[in-house]
Design a protein that fits this description.
The complex is a heterodimer. Helix content of chain A is about 70%, strand content about 0%. By secondary structure, chain A is mainly α. In chain B, about 45% of the residues lie in helices and about 15% in strands. Chain B contains 18 helices and 14 strands. The longest helix of chain B is centred in the C-terminal third of the chain and has 39 residues. Classes of the chains: A mainly alpha, B alpha+beta. The interface between A and B is medium-sized, with 32 and 37 residues.
Chain lengths: ~300, ~500
């Protein structure tokens, strides 16, 4: 390394040092501390006591932990694909040259601007079994409206609906990607006589595949960590009828701040991290052949 | 010319890192200084040299106003201490974190259920010695409220505003149903019979929908349950806040007072069966549909305030909500009858209490206690509780306290607190978990997912598992912790 390079390195490090310090103190330290506490009996107030793998083995025999994990995975299993498909469809529609396009785009983006607490409160009323708007429309269509919030079979579908409603952010990302798709490809396809569906399948989707992959990964992370909606709509603790809406992050929060079992909560956080890591890795492996970076 | 300029830039860039470092160091140092001077707990004093006692309290609105009056009186009476009030939401969690972080307030107002957990985890200061010095003892209080503040031989708190729960009923609805409006139910059988008379349903008979009382339904209609509930006499699901303690009405217990959780004892199962019987009788779906029409508790759409439910179990605070949202309703309050066979007492009530605590690490503990004992003297205590429309937890009250009280049933609540039928939350370090598990079990049994026996067995097993873990740790640290508490107590 020449003197100049060394100098540049020093300067570079110096200039990024506020971030490095912040990263070390607020990220590396906290992540490290949570890893340490996951092997401790720690209630925030008393000194942590090292108990080895007990928190992890306790988790294996904690039926509520499994229920929360099951609820979260089932929720993610429906919410992720539904979110992906609906946001791509909406983005494709919003990308079409129709009049009033900016208005439609704004309408679809609006829900993601409203605070989660406010939307959750509104959904509580929309899902109300007797006076809810949703059941009102279902009844008008001749369908019996279920008890969305008090019947254990409908709590998760209700939450999936609330999450899918807020797809505005990913729609915007897809819209940006759709605009990057080379027009020549569509023109050549037109000359070859390809129809709308064919163009979508063979040009649009492959061209925006890196963005789909990005949204898939973000969806996995977001859905497995879902907290605000179930916490507000079903409260802490019981997690809705027969614990059908008790999600992983809510149970983790309960352990940390209501039951003061911070060690156990830290262990849960690490397991969640491993699950997300595993699923993201799987998604990467499975989709590797289908992503085109257009180089 | 350009060479000259380049050399100038170079010479400037030589000093740049030093300059940058200097700015960075100055920035960091001043930030630290700012934080230290602003957040470090120093000897905070008022302009006239009085010691400032920081007090965190959860109350807002008129409850806060009542407290502010008491604090103002105290501050006026003092030339050494000044109490500074800060209203804090989710105070239990914030107090816990502030105490863990070493910067707690000097005094805090929490719920009594926090006392057991906080005390065992060493987050509170034991008060015994100071209480002795001030001559404050159990005989000064209605015993149940003093006992709520005690844990493992130490006193951790003093009561501020107490409460008991009682049956509230709507006299007009009683009259309309042909019942004596001045006679509430005195047994389970009476409660059930009155409930049937007070309940109005809408049922399709032929092509018409009839609105009739439950008692007018045919046996077949009762069995089919194809009706909508329009008005209900009583349901334990409203408000459903004490579901985990219904066993008390059957003379049941939640634990043996030592190491054993007894959630599925005979009496506890009996209580859950009674709870479930409402769903079986009126239809779970019907009750759910009816419940979906209720507004928030604190709103005119509250089912009792909107005259949809004729009887509810509620605390002494209910008066405030009636006055605020439905002053026109004709109501009364009386003890809620025991529900078991051959009950030990004619009625049962639950006593709760808001309390004042001195967190561990409070810098002005002595001064905080001075204020605490002031609040716990007769005049200020009555002023605070009159302002909040509750009653005094002290054994002796002023002769005209009850007369002056706006709630004309206040004596009922005081009598309940002194009655042998009064019960409290169990002093368990796992009460939060226990409460959750019982809520789940009640829901599971009510909706028919599990039998009451099975649901309660599951709850017991889960809570016992958690309790055992805490006991195991407690056994290890018991001696050290007790010594530590004794030392802290002696340090007063």
């Amino acid at each position: 390394m020449t003197r100049g390079e060394k100098y540049n390195l020093k300067m570079g490090l110096l200039f990024v040092s506020p971030w490095i310090i912040g990263f070390l103190v607020f990220t590396v330290y906290t992540v490290g501390a949570s890893f340490f506490y996951s092997f401790c009996d720690y209630d925030v107030l008393s000194k942590p006591v090292f108990i080895g793998l007990t928190n992890y083995t306790d988790m294996a025999s904690d039926s509520v932990f499994w229920k929360a994990l099951y609820n979260t995975l089932i929720f993610a299993f429906f919410a992720i694909p539904l979110g992906l498909v609906s946001s791509i469809c909406v983005a494709i529609l919003l990308n079409m040259p129709v009049s009033g396009r900016p208005v439609f785009r704004t309408i679809f983006f609006l829900p993601s601007l409203v605070p989660l607490v406010a939307t959750s409160m509104i959904w509580l009323w929309i899902f109300n079994g007797k006076f809810g708007l949703l059941n009102y429309f279902l009844n008008m269509a001749g369908l019996p409206g279920p008890e969305w919030l008090t019947n254990e079979h409908y709590t998760k579908p209700a939450l999936v609906l609330t999450v899918v409603w807020g797809i505005g952010n990913s729609v915007v990302i897809y819209l940006a990607a759709l605009q990057e798709v080379p027009v020549q490809l569509y023109e050549s396809a037109d000359i070859d006589g390809a129809g709308f569906l064919r163009k979508i399948l063979h040009i649009t989707l492959p061209s925006i595949s890196p963005v789909i992959y990005f949204n898939l990964v973000m969806g996995i992370i977001g859905c497995l960590q879902v907290f605000a909606q179930p916490y507000i709509m079903f409260g802490a603790g019981t997690g809705g009828p027969n614990r059908s809406a008790l999600f992983y992050a809510v149970y983790l929060y309960e352990n940390a701040f209501t039951y003061n079992q911070m060690g156990y909560a830290c262990a849960m956080a690490w397991i969640l991290f491993m699950i997300i890591l595993g699923l993201t890795y799987m998604a990467t492996m499975l989709s590797r052949k289908h992503i085109h970076y257009g180089e | 010319m350009s060479e000259d300029r380049n050399s100038k830039i170079e010479s400037f860039s030589q000093y740049e890192p030093i300059l940058f470092m200097a700015v960075l160091v100055i920035g960091i140092v001043s930030a630290i200084l700012f934080l230290v001077t602003k957040t470090a707990v120093k000897d905070e004093r008022t302009a006239d040299g009085r010691i400032v006692v920081n007090y965190w309290e959860k109350w807002t609105g008129f409850e806060r106003d009542a407290l502010v009056e008491v604090i103002d009186d105290f501050n006026k009476s003092q030339d050494k201490i000044f109490v500074k009030l800060l209203t804090v939401s989710t105070i239990d969690q914030k107090l816990l974190l502030a105490t863990a972080g070493g910067t707690p307030p000097d005094i805090a107002g929490v719920w009594v259920q926090n006392v057991n957990v906080f005390a065992e985890k060493g987050a509170l200061t034991p008060l015994n010695k100071m209480l002795d010095k001030k001559g404050i003892s159990r005989k000064d209080y209605i015993p149940v409220f003093w006992d709520l503040c005690e844990r493992k031989g130490f006193m951790w708190a003093l009561p501020s505003t107490p409460a008991t729960v009682a049956l509230h009923w709507n006299k007009k609805m009683f009259r309309d149903a042909g019942l004596d409006p001045d006679r509430p139910p005195k047994s389970r059988a009476e409660l059930d019979a009155m409930n049937e008379k007070l309940t109005i349903v809408a049922i399709k008979r032929g092509s018409e929908t009839a609105r009739i009382r439950y008692t007018e339904l045919t046996d077949e209609e009762k069995k089919q349950k194809n009706f909508d509930i329009v008005q209900l006499g009583y349901t334990p699901t409203e408000p459903g806040w004490w579901n985990s303690m219904w066993c008390y009405w059957f003379d049941g217990e939640l634990w043996d007072g030592d190491r054993k959780i007894t959630a599925d004892s005979k009496e506890d199962v009996e209580a859950l069966k009674w709870f479930k019987s409402f769903g079986d009788k009126y239809g779970i779906q019907n009750l759910r549909n009816f419940g979906a029409s209720f507004g928030n508790f604190s709103s005119p759409q509250n089912p009792f305030l909107s005259e949809k439910v004729a009887m509810v179990i509620q605390g002494v605070w209910m008066y405030n909500f009636i006055e605020k949202y439905a002053p026109q309703i004709e109501w009364a309050a009386a003890p809620f009858p025991s529900l078991g066979e051959n009950p030990k007492n004619a009625f049962v009530s639950i006593a709760e209490c808001d309390v004042l605590v001195i967190p561990k690490g409070a810098r002005r503990a002595r001064e905080a206690f001075e204020f605490m004992s002031y609040v716990n003297s007769r005049g200020p205590m009555e002023k605070l509780n009159m302002g909040q429309r509750k009653f005094s937890p002290l054994a002796e009250i002023s002769p005209d306290f009850v007369k002056k009280h706006p709630n004309k049933y206040i004596q009922t609540f005081i009598d309940l607190a002194k009655s042998p039928g009064v019960r409290t939350i169990p002093k368990l370090p796992v009460w939060n978990e226990y409460n959750t598990e019982l809520s789940v079990a009640y829901d599971q049994a009510f909706t028919g997912i599990m039998s009451p026996e099975e649901a309660l067995k599951n709850a017991r097993e889960r809570v016992q598992w958690k309790f055992d873990k805490i006991l195991k740790r407690w056994d290890l640290i018991k001696e050290d912790r007790t010594k530590e508490w004794e030392k802290e107590n002696d340090a007063w």
